[in-house]
Amino acid sequence: MAIGDFGPFKILLRTPFSRWPSSPPVFKSHHEAATWQRKPPELDTGLDIWRGPKVLSIEWDSRVAGSERIISFRRGAWEGEFLAIPEQPVAPQSASISR
């Protein structure tokens, strides 16, 4: 899982290699548990974007073309702001060893 801040945006990317909590969910009611059981399974890769509140959540199966699914999307000025972020190459992280 990778989390980053880009100006006013917070972005979370989860991948098939992310570790998930192993504890089972706790439900407050039978209705909540039944709703959870009927939801489609989470796909192995996801992207969430916040600009204050969450504005976009998508997920897909990295092994299946066309499996993209929009979980939530909130229209707003954030769309133009996000597209205006200049592309920056990701610098490789180097490890340093203190002696």
UniProtKB/TrEMBL annotation:
It comes from the Bacteria. This is Uncharacterized protein. It comes from Falsiroseomonas frigidaquae.
